[in-house]
TrEMBL record:
Official protein name in the record: glycerophosphodiester phosphodiesterase
Keywords carried by this UniProt record: Glycerol metabolism, Hydrolase, Signal
Range of residues in the leader sequence: 1-25
EC number: 3.1.4.46
Spans through the membrane: none
Matches recorded under PROSITE patterns: GP_PDE (PS51704)
Domain GP-PDE: 41-340, 356-659
Length: 761
């Protein structure tokens, strides 16, 4: 059984980290903030770090403190039969606790704000009754791996005593309901405020706040009126929340702030695209009311404008140039903490603070069909250092950019007259496809590109309303011309796969075609972006090493944990750098937690080989649990702890913004939310009965994995012409016939502390 009272001594460790974060927040205070007071926005952790741990559990509050610094602990107060105030996320205890198992068939039906609701309610149980009930993860898409710790329900007093949050926010959601059961939220709030410091009290019932307003000093306790959906009715006044918007000054008579769903401020249309922001923040600030925004989560789809990047959403609300909300209510407090402390108020073009290389994957393929002119143009404007072209060959020998030789993966070819060209080529991929070398370049240009949605099985789709006008596939010649005059680019990466098959079976020499096109475009001369040739084939890179001075990049398509000396020596003979899968740096188990750090990056660095990791995406399902559904946390760990030299990403904007944040220059004063995660730390907090079987360690890369016979010869390819751009899309860079491995996930720097806390009994 989890006993929070046994861990109070361990909290001294948490306080150390909290002090660092508080200092960082204080350094951030500036008159540039457009909040009501000019202070930085506050981070309110709803039920603690409820995006990861059971809502309102000891672990959730503790991890919020150790990852997010000067956070505010939010407690949804429910009252028991004997008037104890407990922290549980909803008036019904069913989803978030084990009460249905502890008290089987005891469900009740009560009216809540006039609507019959069935379930288990705290009003039917004493605090002693609930001692046998434990908290559990109530959002089924989130990990349940920590439920085995049997977290008890906390009272408000226990929350403060055991986790010592920097500030406490009590949310009184159902005063009218509890009054019907002869329980007084007013009496509870007045009583508890004599024992602990309550910094904020919120309620959607104006009558409740008005009844306590005279009893609290606004300098000590802020009263906040909570808005529900606009058509919902405040049971204390019978007014809709939409009607309150027309009389915002009335709220100032009993509250110092308002808490509103984020779409009150920045609404979205029916297709999840942002509409213009409202005047609510400006109106409330003019009336002297602070504005707090709610409903921030990182693990559900939000407006497509943010490209699945939760940090971008927070920055929109706190650093948009027009206004800043005064605080955000979130299930994932680490992300707004880093937004406030590291990324806001940097100006229009902040300088890079680290030199990590950002390499696109098919351009900005998270926002546009990959390998199209718009994907590349956006990658460049989003800050990519290197843009990539996975080279495919047309039937008439034109090299062009597309993620896969199978046109079905990235174009509408299957809906055209070319559908009859479907065939199976096991040397290239399993299953059937319509391959680029079955169509001429002119025919390929008639195809319509499609945007990739690699996580569509999770109902996560990328930018469905992207601008489809004037979007074209690019020949390699077009691609090189596009990149040649972009001064922000340091290089281009040319990716070559299937060279042996193309030469032997299709009589097409992709290597010769690439070399000729690069030479014709002037890339063998000074003053142009550097050229990086990337391949999983050592024979391809050997050929380029013999004939050119381009940087050769060897892609290790297997999952490996290290490399033997002979393999590294072999790689050094034909390559200057290496691309690894993310899981080769940080493997995950079947629960999607990080397990260990491997030695592969260190081994390659000792041989003076640069290392790039792939593929980073913004979608939360692509990240280990340890990264808190935050792409920035993941990149930060790979750069600071994994020491990779660059990242390959579908979303160059996220990676470029990361290396410009001000916290990276703080050294040993870096705040907790910008420290790398502790590898394997959270896994230690999973109880034995929830652990999967131990995974075998990743094998080392051997010389036999690297060595290949020379490429077969093909008839000389004609020098490709720079024909006009056409249309297409993307999927994933071709693999060297290795088995596909599913992307996995993990958690935070201070997770070792979490694990220690979870192991206390």
């Amino acid at each position: 059984m989890w006993k929070p009272r046994a861990v109070s001594h361990a909290l001294s460790l948490l306080l150390f980290w909290s002090v660092l974060a508080v200092a960082s927040a204080q350094r951030s205070k500036t008159n540039a903030w457009k909040t009501l007071t000019g202070s930085p926005p506050v981070v309110i952790a709803r039920g603690g770090f409820s995006g990861m741990f059971p809502d309102s559990s000891f672990a959730a509050y503790s991890v919020a403190g150790e990852t997010s610094g000067n956070y505010i602990a939010w407690c949804d107060v429910q009252l028991t039969k004997d008037s104890a105030g407990i922290c549980v996320s909803d008036i019904k205890l069913d989803n978030s606790t084990s009460i249905a198992q502890a008290f089987q068939n005891k469900s009740q039906t009560y009216k809540v704000n006039g609507t019959p609701v069935s379930g288990y309610f705290s009003v039917d149980y004493t605090l002693k009754d609930l001692a046998s009930v434990v908290l559990q993860q109530g959002v089924y898409s989130r990990t349940t791996s920590f439920d085995g710790n049997l977290f008890p329900i906390l009272t408000v007093d226990e929350l403060v005593k055991e986790t010592k949050p920097p500030a406490l926010w009590l949310n009184i959601q159902h005063d009218a309901f509890y009054a019907q059961h002869n329980l007084s939220m007013r009496n509870f709030v007045l009583s508890v405020s004599k024992r602990v410091i309550v910094s904020y009290i919120s309620s959607p019932e104006a009558g409740f706040l008005r009844s306590i307003a005279s009893r609290f000093n606004p300098k000590t306790t802020k009263l906040v009126f909570r808005f529900m959906d606009k058509d919902d009715v405040d049971p204390s006044t019978n007014q809709t929340y939409g009607s309150y918007l027309k009389n915002i000054t009335f709220i100032k008579t009993f509250a110092s702030g308002i808490l509103v769903p984020k779409d009150y401020i920045w609404p979205v249309d029916g297709n999840l695209y942002l509409l213009p922001h409202t005047t609510l923040v400006a109106d409330a600030h003019k009336a002297g009311l602070e504005v707090y925004a709610s409903k921030f989560v990182s693990d559900v789809p939000f407006a497509f404008n943010y490209s699945y990047d939760p940090l971008a959403e927070y920055l929109q609300y706190i650093d948009n140039g027009d206004f800043s909300v005064d605080g955000v209510l979130t299930d994932f407090p680490i992300t707004p903490a880093e937004a406030v402390g590291c990324f806001a108020l940097l100006g229009a073009n902040p300088k890079k603070t680290i030199n990590t290389t950002v390499i696109s994957r098919c351009g900005a393929s998270g926002d546009y069909p990959g390998c199209t002119n718009k994907a590349y143009e956006k990658a460049i404007s989003d800050g990519a250092d290197v843009i990539d072209c996975p080279v495919q060959m047309s039937k008439d020998g034109t090299p062009f950019c597309l993620s896969s030789a199978d046109l079905i993966e990235s174009t509408t070819v299957a809906q055209t007259s070319f559908a009859s060209l479907v065939k199976s080529i096991p040397e290239i991929k399993s299953g059937s496809g319509i391959f680029s070398f079955s169509l001429t370049w002119d025919e390929i240009q008639t195809l319509t590109p499609t945007i990739s949605s690699p996580f569509s099985n999770f109902k996560l789709f990328r930018n469905p309303k992207y601008d489809k006008s004037n979007i074209n596939l690019l020949s390699l010649s077009d691609f090189l011309d596009l990149a040649k005059n972009k001064t922000s680019l340091s290089g281009v990466m040319i990716i070559i796969e299937n060279a042996a098959y193309l030469a032997e079976k299709q009589d097409l020499s992709v290597t010769d075609a690439v070399i000729k096109t690069l030479s014709k475009a002037g890339y063998d001369k000074a003053g142009v972006p550097k050229v990086m040739i990337r391949s999983t084939s050592s024979s391809v890179l050997t050929k380029f090493k013999e004939r050119t001075n381009y940087e050769c990049v060897y892609e290790v398509d297997e999952l490996v944990g290290d490399a033997v000396v002979s393999a590294v020596k072999d790689i050094k003979s034909f390559a200057d750098s290496v691309v690894l899968k993310k899981q080769s740096v940080y493997p995950t188990d079947s629960l999607l937690f990080l397990t260990v750090s491997t030695n592969i990056v260190t081994t390659l660095h000792h041989a003076n080989l640069s290392v790039y990791a792939r593929t980073f995406t913004n979608e939360f399902v692509s990240q280990a649990w340890d990264f808190f559904s935050d792409a920035t946390v993941e990149i930060n760990t790979f750069v600071q702890e994994g020491l990779v030299d660059g990242v390959i990403t579908d979303f160059p904007k996220t990676a470029d913004r990361y290396r410009r944040n001000k916290c990276l220059t703080l050294g040993d004063k870096m705040p907790v939310y910008m420290l790398p995660v502790q590898i394997g730390g959270l896994l230690q907090g999973v109880t034995k009965d929830y652990l999967p079987p131990a995974s075998a360690p990743l094998p080392p890369l051997k010389e036999s994995d690297v060595t290949e016979p020379p490429l077969p010869s093909a008839s000389p390819s004609p020098t490709p012409s720079a024909s006009p751009s056409g249309n297409s899309s993307e999927a994933n860079p071709p693999k060297n016939a290795q088995v596909k491995v599913t992307v996995c996930f993990s958690l935070s720097t201070l997770a070792v502390l979490v694990a220690c806390l979870l192991l206390w009994v």
